[in-house]
Amino acid sequence: MQTETIAIHAGNLTRSTTGDVTAPISLSTTFFRDEQGGYPGGHMYSRVSNPNRSALEKVMADLEKGADACAFSSGNTAGMTLFQALAPGSHIIAPDDMYWGFKKQLQSIFEGILTIDFIDLTTTATIESYIQSNTVMIWVETPSNPLLKITDLAAISVIAKKHQLIFACDSTFASPCFQNPILSGADIVMHSSTKYIGGHSDVLGGILITAAKNEFWDKIRNIQQIGGAVPSPFDCFLLLRSIKTLPYRMRGHAENGMALAKHLAAHSKVEAVYYPGLPSHPHHEIAKKQMSAFGGMLSILIKGDAENAKKVVNKVKLFAQATSLGGVESLIEHRASVEGPDTKTPQNLIRISVGLEHIDDLIADLEQALA
Ligand SMILES: *Cc1c(COP(=O)(O)O)cnc(C)c1O
């Protein structure tokens, strides 16, 4: 089946006895046992599994062309679970331009447990020189946050396979509609479902999808079930509802993203536009190879300094000045001040999550703010 069909049907796991076409929310924390002590409904206790979460995991595994998925209460928890599943003393390779929350986790929570090299993964030639005897994983984020760098998934896969490393990819910016890292050789795909998958800025969630069910995946499932950082049935219901329109929302995000990137690239107040769909993007050819469209995230450098950039985000009326991304409403932020004093993000960088409003209204709002 094609993506649009999977998105609508793959989460309909059960036909309820009351005839609901849309699966009801199963709030029960516990489930009946039968005379033999089994669980005829397939569920025992809601932390371990429940019908809404199983449906969410099924549709996400199918959309990402994976074998199974684990849903979590946030994207950060999804990533942390993966890091927790690695043996203490392991070394991992991660991108220099990495979602700052994960960088913070690795540097604080996993200090003394894991060692990490944060390197530029877009130049794949140098990666092998960082591999040590205790290296176990290459973590990739593409497109990256906030510089929209593109990492060549197929090239990373070759290196990971040669050295028997786990290849994991944070694919949040691409969504499962525009990029399926498993098809390029990734072992694990991660999404913050708070973003495009939820799509309405009203639910927090994260998900890991595996290419294969294996011993490492059992560890992840175990941390999910015993650790218990799981989404509620209602959160899962909201995500399942959102996923049904995900492919169509993503088309709108990508169409608006491309139009806005082109417009801003020609603007006299803008020094640079980072959007992988622009032929001027340094990794445009790789993006074209591994993505079917380029999404709704872009960053721009304003001519001038932090003050000039802050003026623009304070002057917009339609864009909401707020962090996060992937919702139907457009968001704008001065990224460096969100990330704090030790950030490497350029001070004149503005990150934009292009929503689904009419492109003419979005352009008009940015025009008046840049004027
Ligand atoms: C938001 C985000 C995360 C973290 O997800 P939360 O749901 O906020 O915990 C991880 N990676 C990327 C690329 C993100 O944008």
Automatic annotation (TrEMBL):
Coiled coil location: none
Requisite cofactors: pyridoxal 5'-phosphate
Keywords: Pyridoxal phosphate
Domain of life: Bacteria
Cellular component terms (Gene Ontology): cytoplasm
Modified residues (N6-(pyridoxal phosphate)lysine): K195
Protein name: Cystathionine gamma-synthase
Organism: Pedobacter cryoconitis
